[in-house]
User: Fold this.
Amino acid sequence: MEKKAKKILVVEDEPKIMEVVEAYLKNNGYIVFCAKDGEEALEQFHKESPDMVLLDLMLPKISGEEVCQIIRRESRVPIIMLTAKVQEDDTINGLNMGADDYMTKPFSPRELVARVASLFRRCEGTNAPLLHVMSWNGGELEVNFDSYTVKKQGNIVSLTPNEFKLFSAMAKFPQKTFTREELIEVAFGLEFDGYDRTIDSHIKNLRAKIEMNSSKPRYIITVRGVGYRFGGEK
Ligand code: CA
Assistant:
């Protein structure tokens, strides 16, 4: 057990599950905050800055999916989805939404505690607050999220606002493969009224600007049949 107790936000609308999860986590030395719907979850998240979020998928007011996406726009806090759905597809969607792990109900509270501990170990040092400046390949490419600038070999690259949003969405989550729909949502928001293929033309322009050789991209990698991911090496 570490010296400083970790804070966990548990979002669950079923009182019985909440009660058990809260008791087990507290017994294991965690500080627990509870939220019983999506709205409360976001309030608590901003107020308490938890070190991990356990997030039920089916929630009143704002769904677990949405809560997860909103949290992911601003934080890399580890998230475990708690889902009653058993289909493989939902699991995969949960992970695509930005969750780090998932558990299907009914689960054993003991296993949940083990997963929490293992996710904390896995995220050790990587769940630091979002960096303001990131760079890859020995500084070949650099982004500054405060000034919204990207530099290639030290020279500022002029990106359109949409290209910048697309780039930063991917760069912040280098382990994640984004579908075109997710990129549209992350970069342009739900109100965006366009086709999936619009993303491909933005990607093409982005590559032409940031890649050393856009026919052999090192940063914006195509994941065949799925979408795109970031490939920059630290
Ligand atoms: Ca529920």
About this structure: The radius of gyration is 19 Å.
